[in-house]
Amino acid sequence: MKFIIKLFPEITIKSRPVRRRFIQRLQSNLQVVVKRACPSATVSAFWDKLEVVLPEEHSEYRDDVVATMKRVPGIAHFLEVTEYPFVDFHDAFEKTLALYRDRLKDLTFKVRVKRSGSHDFTSVELERYIGGGLLQHSESAGVDVRKPELYVDLEIVKDQMFIIDQQHQGLGGYPLGSQEAVLSLISGGFDSVVASYMTMRRGSKTHFLFFNLGGKAHEIGVKQVALHLWEQYGASARVKFISVPFDEVVGEILQNVNHSHMGVVLKRQMMRAAEQVADFMGIDALVTGESIAQVSSQTIPNLTVIDQSTTKLIVRPLITMDKQEIVNKTKELGCFDIVKMIPEYCGVISDRPTTKAKLDRVVKEEALLDEAVLAKAVERCNVVAIDEIIKNLDIQSDIEALTKVSENQIVVDVRAPHEQEKTPLNMPGCDVISVPFYELETASDSWVPEKEYLLYCDKGVMSHLHAQNLQEKGLGNVKVYRPKV
């Protein structure tokens, strides 16, 4: 089983050395993620394409490989093809008919042939021969050269023929790691999540910086969405998740800064802290989810004042996007259900905020702050490799993971509804309830102390995180269910 990877068009217009470097990077990225889906798959690079080959004996991995490649930055689209030696027109027609006969029923179609190499025929001649044969020997609705319901595509490369069975849309953008790394300020809200994705898609290795304003539950939610983004769109690169305790910094602002300037000062303090972290990591750019005038701190005058708090480049991918566009994008990314339950804590200190902050006034307000508080917050930051979240994300060792369920225990499926629907948890003889993770805190209020509640998710990561959170809130009868593989 073969897939032909077509490059994102902007890659093809680069200079030869840059294009070669991008292709090599894309090949390396594909080797990492595709081999996770199917260890026996191979990835080959050419000047105008890449090829991924899946051994026929491992064709059961096909769906996982396709889903994986759809999320790899740098791919315009990829073709699922069947390869044959090119013999002659009639042989090409017979092989095409075998693949397309059933799919052509009651549909209009058009045959398209692309060639490379030297041949004694034209693409149009082969198109007409195959199209005429399909028209005679199938139950199609006829040929439509302008708006067909189905395209029948072939590629002839020298003496090889590729019949395209299916075309899949890619993510576009540049290969991850082909651009310099960035540090994304992720709050867990819609904006910062989409901004992080957009820099990943543009080829930048995107690390995550989180300013914790809402305690353990807030951190769990943000780590969950960062992990989702990385697993889906950035898993070919190892990145860091940095958490900075910012509650004392907020306290300083609340006590010393005029209410109208609290929002701007908070953002400037975040930028200062982010600059220190970025310096340590050797990163030149910070990423935020700010959009012009979406909230008071994001007016052009206020953004100008915020920018002057750091020497780093501040990248704002969403700067002209509407809120609904951003929300819709989180649905496409598969993290809407997570994000919608994470509060936006930055707005809690906004009280009749100014929309036209002046730098000299802001500097005077900041002079009242104790610089040691910000320095202490940065010193206390916690750095973890994003993939280590799966293994150990501050998970307490006393959270028991069980492989069997007894009579007084209830299994709680905490996966998102679409995950539960895709792969239902079938456990005959056991009590199983469905409580999506974002409803756990409310639902747990009605849990009885006589029962034990075993949280379940596919990988065991989020079940551990939420079990820890519930235990910290006083629910000692919460454990984790992890079935034997």
Give a description of the structure.
- The chain has 485 residues and is α/β, with parallel strands linked by helices.
- Helix content is 39%, strand content 23%.
- It has helices at 9-12, 16-37, 62-69, 89-100, 123-137, 190-201, 215-234, 247-256, 262-281, 300-307, 323-333, 336-339, 359-366, 371-379, 388-391, 417-422, 440-443, 461-472, and strands at residues 2-7, 42-45, 49-53, 75-85, 108-116, 142-143, 150-157, 160-172, 179-185, 204-212, 240-245, 285-287, 313-315, 382-385, 401-402, 409-413, 431-434, 452-456, 478-481.
- The strands form 3 sheets. Strands 2-3-1-4-8-7-5-6 form an 8-stranded mixed sheet.
- Helix 2 (16-37) packs antiparallel against helix 3, helix 6 (190-201) packs across helix 11 and helix 9 (262-281) crosses helix 10.
From the alpha carbons, calculate the radius of gyration and give it in angstroms.
27 Å
- Main sheet strand line-up: 2-3-1-4-8-7-5-6
> What structural class do you assign from the helix and strand content?
alpha/beta
Percentage of residues in DSSP E strands: 15-25%
**Overall pLDDT, averaged?**
90
Q: What is the end-to-end distance?
A: 28 Å
Low-confidence stretches: 393-397
Helical residues, percent: 25-40%
Number of strands: 19
What is the count of DSSP helices, taking H or I runs of 4+ residues? Answer: 18
Tell me the overall shape. globular
Question: Largest sheet, described in full?
Answer: 8 strands, mixed
